[in-house]
Amino acid sequence: MSSEKAPLLEIENLYVDFHGRTRITHAVRGLSLTMGREKIGIVGESGSGKSVTGRAILKLIRPPGVVRAQKLVFDGIDIMSADERTMRGIRGARASMIMQDPKYSLNPVMRVGDQIAEAYVMHKKVSGRQARERTLAMLEAVKIRDPERVCRAYPHELSGGMGQRVMIAMMLIPEPDLLIADEPTSALDVTVSMQILAIMDDLVSQRGMGLLFISHDLNLVASFCDKVVIMYAGRIMEVCEAAKLHEAQHPYTRGLLASLPRIDEARETLEVLKRDPAWLDDGLKEGA
């Protein structure tokens, strides 16, 4: 993958292993990826290494996890050699991550407005008044109708969709260059999910950010992203233009597509995905 400008993120031969008492689990194996300020979706089954890849980019893998890479560079910064102080300057301010079911990542004993403002003050060094004004503006940007009321609320007082919007506001308020969204709409119904995605799409496009969107939903990613990375067992199987996803060639991608129900096609039974052990060795080792 490439961009006309300098890459925002460069990954070459990323490995993430978890060392147990009796065996080593290889979560990510030889992943290579280059992205600019574009929207890239990462799709695969549970356990394929999608979330672990996102966490490794921000150096959030803790022992017994071990991260190795020939290159892991974010906007010219070598992540592999960066110390924790450097990473604290990157996380949030330069690169943010929306975790799965993000509402429950909020502090339950702090008001929502205070949490969002804290994220802004920490990275921008502004006054409390400026932070509050920016917080209200950001809540309006994510289509919350009564930002004053939501600012005073606690997380348990919010609906699922509103909680997602608050978390998106918190991650975007420092205006990062890269947003990693890990299944940000998995707990929501279809209508609310599409509203949240439309908000994210607008904000990412307006700010010229890079978006790494992690999901199980092939059709969703195809309609939302520019490119799609298909992962299986820690490896990249195929990289496709999102608009041409249904022309994918790899048997794993074809199997995932065939296992999805389609409203325009009547089938008595859905196909069962068949996995080939050879895929563990045949994944792409270099970004396309």
Primary descriptors:
6-stranded mixed sheet, disordered C terminus, globular, 5-stranded antiparallel sheet, 288 residues, 10 helices
The poorly predicted ranges are: 283-288
| Fraction of helical residues | 25-40%
Shape: globular
Continuous helix count? 10
Topology:
Elements: E1 9-19, E2 24-35, E3 39-43, H1 50-57, E4 65-68, E5 71-74, E6 77-78, H2 84-90, E7 95-98, H3 112-124, H4 128-141, H5 147-152, H6 160-172, E8 178-182, H7 190-207, E9 210-215, H8 218-224, E10 227-232, E11 235-241, H9 251-258, H10 279-282
Parallel strand pairs: 3-9, 3-10, 7-8, 8-9
Antiparallel strand pairs: 1-2, 1-4, 1-5, 5-6, 10-11
Helix pairs in contact: 3-4, 3-6, 4-6, 6-7
Quick overview:
The protein is an alpha/beta fold and 288 residues long. The protein contains 10 helices and 11 strands.
Report on this structure.
The protein has 288 residues and is α/β, with parallel strands linked by helices. The protein has a domain of 81 residues. The chain has 10 helices and 11 strands. Strands 7-8-9-3-10-11 form a 6-stranded mixed beta sheet, sandwiched between helices. The chain starts with 8 loop residues before the first strand and ends in a 6-residue tail after the last helix.
